[in-house]
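Thread: Newbie trying to understand structure tokens

Hi all, I'm a second-year student working on a class project, and my supervisor (Dr. K.) asked me to get a predicted structure for one chain before our next meeting. I've only ever worked with sequences, so writing a 3D structure as a token string is new to me. If someone could post the tokens and maybe explain what I'm looking at, I'd be very grateful. Here's the chain:
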Amino acid sequence: LLANAAYWGHKNPGQLASVFDDHELISPWIEETLRYDTSSQLLARAVVEDLEFYGTTVPAGDVLVLLAGSANRDERVFDQPDEYRIGRDIGSKLVSFGSGAHFCLGAHLARMEARVALTELFKRIRSYEVDEDNSVRVHSSSVRGFAHLPMTVKAR
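---
Reply by user tm_fold:
Sure, no problem. This is what the structure looks like when written as tokens:
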């Protein structure tokens, strides 16, 4: 989450500048990152009883693979979903942490840790640059993020 936020902030410098000016935008920055480039792309669920799903019956015993990354870009839910926009009205539509009985128990902790880390960092730096040429993505079918994201920061 932290590296994804740093990367997409770097790719959208005009929006990132407003976060440096107003730390109240750190939480919306985190939420937009969770929507736009969620770390957990897949959610698998076992079907316990026959399920009618978008006009198709999924029989009990089957497994559904839900694509959270795709759902968070659904144009029926989000206006201009392929644009990264800090401050977007996301509300309760985000599925990055699942929902209902399967909602991630660590979601609030992940958000709080990201908010505290980025707030403390932004109190101490005035800008940063990402070295995209030397960044390395995690190689995984279900996790999206960076194994290595080198950055240069300028202190306040």
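A couple of things are worth pointing out once you decode it. The helical segments are 2-11, 13-21, 26-36, 68-71, 107-124. Residues 106 and 128 are 28 Å apart (CA to CA). Feel free to ask follow-ups in this thread.
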